[in-house]
Write a structure and sequence with these properties.
The complex is a heterodimer of chains A (about 425) and B (about 240). By secondary structure, chain A is of the alpha+beta class. Chain A has 17 helices and 10 strands. The chains are: A alpha+beta (about 425), B alpha/beta (about 240).
Chain lengths: ~425, ~240
Amino acid sequence: MAKRTVEYSISRTPEMGAAGGPAHGPLFPVDLAEPELGAEHMLINIGPQHPATHGVLRLVCELDGETVIKVIPHIGYLHSSFEKLGEYRTWNQIVTLTDRMDYLAPLIYNCAYVMSVEKLMGIEVTERCKVFRVILMEMERIFSHLLWLGTTAIDLGAFTPFLYAFQDREKIYTLHEKYTGARITTSATRVGGMMADIPDGWIDELKEFLRVFPRTLDEIDTLLTTNGIHLGRTQNIGVISAEDAVNCGFTGPNLRASGVPYDLRKDNPYYDYDTYEFEVPIGEHGDCYDRYLVRMEEMRQSVGILHQAIERLPGGPMDVPDPHVTLPSKTDCMSDMESMIHHFKLIMEGVKAPPGDCYFAVEGSKGELGMYVVSAGGPKPVRWRIRPPSFVNLSVIPKLAEGHLVSDLIMINASLDIVLGEIDR
Amino acid sequence: MDDPPKPPAGSALDTVEEGPRTGHALPVRLAATTLRHPTVDGLRARFGASVQHHAISAGDQHVVYVEAGRNREVLRWLKQDPAQHYDLLADVTAVDFGGDRPLEVVYQLWSVPHRRALRVKCELPLAALAIDSVEPLWRTADWLEREVYDLFGIEFRGHPDLRRIMMPENYAEGHPLRKDFPLRGRFTRAEQTRRALSQDPVDQYIPTELATGREPRIPGDVPLGESEVVEPSPEPEG
C-alpha cells in the first residue's frame, strides 16, 4: 500500500521567551482569570446559503463558546425526487438525470447507471466501450478530487491551490465539451454503449493533460502537504476509527483514510479493473489530514490507470450490435427497411428490460455509488434507487464534529467531500 | 403521520402521465432458485421458515426474503456471525410495486472481509407499514431509514430520530415515492404556494434544536455495536 509519512515540527504551544512566559507578550496587560460567563449554549445556523457548506446544506449548531456541542444537518433544499422522475422515463431517458446529481463527476454517474441497467438486461458491452468508460471514470475521479482539493484549501484560507486546481479542471471541462458538447451535464452514456465514438484528437488532448497534470499536483503538494497551517488544521481533526467508519457506512476515500482497504475496483472488480496496475492508498489515523493524503494519492493512481487504459484502448465498434438496444446508423435508417423499423421501435417504445432487480455499485469519487434498478419487464423502471455515497458520508458529521471548534467543523465538512445535488437528489 | 388528504376527484392532476403500469399479473417475486449460497444455507439452518424465499437476480445476485417480524434478529446474525460478517450495510431502501401488493424493504449487505454481497428483502403489507429499525446495528441506517420513512411512509420501530429528511417537517401531502402519489403532488400549485408563503421561520427548526442548554444528545448517539436502546427519550419542548 502506498503510504506517505510526513515529518513535521509544528508546536501547538506558543513560543516561549527567556523568562518562561510567551515570547510575544500581550500589548495590554490582561487579567488572565477567566470570568464566569454562565453556561448558556448558543444556537447558530450555518447555511443553507454559505460558501463553506459546499452547496445548499444547512447546519444547525449548538455551541458552548466556540466548541460544537451538537450539529444537526438539514438537507433537502435541492430535492427534486429524481428517483420518482425516473419511474416516468424510459431507461435511456434517465441518463440525463444521473449527471444532474453529481455535477462534479457527472460521467461516473452516467456510467454507473447504465452499467446497472446493462447488468439487469444481461448486456455485455464491447471491449472498446469498457476501456473508454474506464478512461472516463478515472478522468472524473481526478475532476472531482481537484474540486475538492481547491475548495477545501479555500476553506482553510489558502487561495493558491484553488487557482491551480481549477486551471487543470478547466482542461477536463474542455475534454467534456469536445466529447459530449456540454461542460457539466454530459449525459454521455446509453444502454449498450456511448452517445458517440471518441472524436479525433480527443485522446491526444487527454494525453497532454496527463503530461501536465502531475506537475500541477506536485505544486499543490508542495503548498499543502507540509504546510504548518494545513497540518495544524487537519491533523487529529474529525478522527474516526476503522470499525466506526464501517459501521457508519463510510465508503471511498473517507473509509480508506481510516485504514480499511475497501475499494470496489479491487474487491468487486468490474470492467477488468483487476488487470490494471494500481494501488489503493490507505491512511491510518482517519483524520482530515489522512483523507487529504488518500485523495492526493488516488489522483496519482488514476493518472497511472489512464495511461494504461489509453495504451490498451482497442478499435472496433463502441455500441453493442444488438438492434433491440442500439440505434441503427442514420444511413441504414434511410436505406434499409429493417433498420428503420428498429429505429422506430426503439424511439417510440424504448429499450425493454426483463423483470427483476439489480444492484450494481462502482467506486465513485465520493465512495460506493450503487444503482439499484427494479424492472417489471417494460421500458420504464418500477423503481430506480441511487445508493448515495455523499448522503451516507454526511450523516456522520454530527459524530465527527462533536467537541471540535466551529472552524474545525468547516474543515470536517470539507474533508468529507460531499455534493449536495446527490445528497438531495 | 396522518393520512394525506385525497386529491379532489376530477382534478387536473389525474390527467398527468402516470408511472409504469406494472399490472397485477406480474409475479411479485422472481422464481426460487436451486443454487446454493453458504449464507442462505446458514440462514435456513438457524431461522427455518422465517427464510421465505431465495432467488437469483441479474445473473449472479442472491436475494433472500425473510419474515418482516424477525428482520433485526436475522440481520444481527448476518452481521455478527463470524462466518457471515456482513459488516457494511450499503443501502436501505423500499420498493412499491403499486396496486395492493406489499412494499418491500431492501437491505444491501456487503462483507468487507469475505467480499460477498447479499440482498435481504422484507415484505410489508400495506395495512401494517412498520418494521424494526436496524439503527442499533449499523449507524448507517439512521439517515437511510429516515429517507425511507419520509418517501414511503414506512415506520421504523426503535429508530431514535425518525422524522422527515428530504421533505420539510410540515409537509402534508404524503409520501412521494409511493405509487399512489401523483408526480406533481397532491395539492394544487396554488395551495402549495399558499402554504410556502405562510410559513413561519420557526418552522425551519425542529423543537429539539431550539431547546439549547440541556444535556447534549446527538440523535442516535449510542455506543456502537452493543446498543439496544430502542425508545427515544422524550425531548423537552420549546
